[in-house]
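Handout, section 4.2: multi-component inputs.
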Amino acid sequence: MDSKILIIGSSGQIGTELVLSLRKIYGNENVIASDIRKGNYEVMESGPFEFLDVTNKSEIQKIIEKHQVKEVYLMVAILSVIAEQNPKMAWDLNMSALFNVLDLAKEGQIKKIFWPSSIAVFGPDTPKYNTPQDTIIKPSTVYGISKQAGENWCAYYSNKYDVDVRSLRYPGLISYKTTPGGGTTDYAVEIFYEAIKRKSYTSFLSENTVLPMMYMDDAINATIGLMQKERNSGYVSYNVGSLSFSPAQLAEAIKKRIPEFTISYKPDARQEIANSWPQSVDDSVARKNWGWQPKVDLDEMVRIMLLGLHYTI
Ligand code: SER
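Output:
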């Protein structure tokens, strides 16, 4: 392979699984993992790893030159909850990471970028159900504002400088290899750890708070699938739907496999963030433009999570 791939943020929830999947497809040596902290054993042992501070453009550049990188997946971000606590820090990190990578592409040093957006771009004025691809985008969170601005900057670099940048609006992502951190949808991962350990969970979102969610394998397939497509004209950050459920519905699905499991509710500040997001998204544009199709439903997701976390009946 003459063009290598760099994952920035390879120790995070999505980065970890992206590295492992891309290494399976393109070969271990062709996928460079990088992060400010070490990743899990599998990532560290299966191929190249570089320590990288994404806010330092010349550090990124050095790694790109060293490994002859042509494609970058930028998986670094401060998520919704932490961003509310540190607005300026979140804005600075989320935006400087994006600008550094966009500028490297503008300068011709890399050819293709993946940058994730989020359902957090939507706000309280956005239609809540089947949220269209193009709709009111007025986020009420710091994280959402950084994603909205990011989408606009990606479109600008694509139009103005012909940068090939691709993007998905991820829903809450559920996985067991690496825990998420600082997000509003994190309850849907925490619940599995607590269900196994204590057979009970106290949800920080209320019983009937429905949010768009997705099992990690579907998110990885969507990401790699989009990157493998021929370049379409123009930048789109695609809605990708899969599951939509509330804490109560997830608890029901867990109960089918752990009958003694109980859930209680103690909504905190994160409820307000969740209330500003859609319950489900219309992803027909992604389905039509590049054949997006999720595979894992709620029951299957629960089965995989319990198995992955070594739950034995
Ligand atoms: N999972 C993210 C969060 O909760 C949403 O993109 O912040």
